[in-house]
Amino acid sequence: METFKAVKSVGIPCQPSEMLLRLLRDFRDMVNYCLEVGLREGITGRFKLTKLVYGRLQRYGYHSWYALSAIEVATAILKNYRKARRKNHNVKLPKARKLLAKLGNQAFKVENGELVFPLKPRQPIRIPLHKRALHVLRNVKLGSITITPTAIYIAYSRMIEVKEPEGWVAIDVNEDNVTAVSSDGEVRRHDFSKLKKASYGYFWRKRKIQQKYVGDRRILKKALAKLSRNYHNLVKSELHKVSASLAKWCKEKSYGLIHEDLKGLRKSVNERVKKLNKFNGKIQEVSVRNKELKRRLNNWCFRRILHMINYKCLWFGVKVKPEEAKGTSSTCPRCGFKLKEYLNRQVECIYCRYREDRDITACLNLLKASDVRVWFALERPSNVAMNPALTSPISDEDKLGEPKRGSLVGMLDFYNIQFTTPN
Description:
Layout: E1 2-13, H1 18-41, H2 46-57, H3 64-87, E2 101-103, E3 109-111, E4 114-120, E5 123-128, H4 131-136, E6 141-147, E7 151-162, E8 167-173, E9 177-182, E10 187-191, H5 193-212, H6 217-253, E11 255-260, H7 265-269, E12 272-276, E13 283-287, H8 291-298, H9 302-315, E14 320-323, E15 340-341, E16 346-348, E17 355-357, H10 358-368, E18 384-387, E19 407-411
Parallel strand pairs: 8-11, 11-14
Antiparallel strand pairs: 1-7, 2-6, 3-4, 4-5, 6-7, 8-9, 9-10, 12-13, 15-16, 16-17, 18-19
Helix pairs in contact: 1-2, 1-3, 2-3, 5-6, 6-9
């Protein structure tokens, strides 16, 4: 059993006053001043930066906690800038652009159903909390608050004991669905075709608005902001529903969750190689993929859904294990040979005649990497899972001849499987 710190946040919608908006603008200026000094002096530590800028930040007249928070935010930005610069020397200089302010847990409190935090010395601001915020903030440790022009976000945390799972649930994240297969044979598929269709509609509607209001940037900015807000609210709502459903399913079964470690996908999609440009006759960097594919995959929110699944599973005490994504959809889970693709996302192995949905196949290969080790032997029926950890070693010359043997772990009837749509 392991103990981890799980962190979540709750948002409180609010209409900020002119005084609060002025605070957000000043806080942004404070962060930018810290960044300027840090870059000019080559400072890498927070305490050294505090000695140089604290006196200047106090002149803004706000509570001292805002000066310390601005220094902390600037230090984090400088740290990320140095990390990015080690990979690419052409990184732009950092600059704070968003309107926000941050305070640590020492600077605010929750009392009598209200959030109380200072603006200036002995000038507190009180924001009423809604029922859900009061409910989730019970028996948890408060973190920091982030103030924005539309809402205030309160971070909270608690210590979670993560037990060893009794089984596993493997998920395969795709553009139009998330497929989940448990080690006892249950399959669930969450449809994302609505989000994929909305993504195409968002792109074309955005282009039409740009063409319509090309001469009026004020109206163009307002129309694009409304369109973008509606689209991102739809995406966020659907992802929260799916991630919460998967986390609760794993908790009910006392199972762990396995997902593909999707790293470097954006870099692979936007890969460029030097080729001869047939239009001007010069050697230039040309994209490997076409525009439509790059637009689709760059707009695909795979990192966000995995992030939501990870922190919600941790909050429920569900163990999460990322696995290598390479070859999960193209490798036979029974014999390990390369699969041949057919229509309707079906794949088939020409060696052992395994045939199944591509997404379910990816989940089976992920389950092979778990402690359950779901694996199929050639002499067994298609619905029998084997444990290769208990198999006897086989020589190279017997790999294609004598089938492997193992011990029975469970029954997984993937040829006659019934898809269940979650509520």
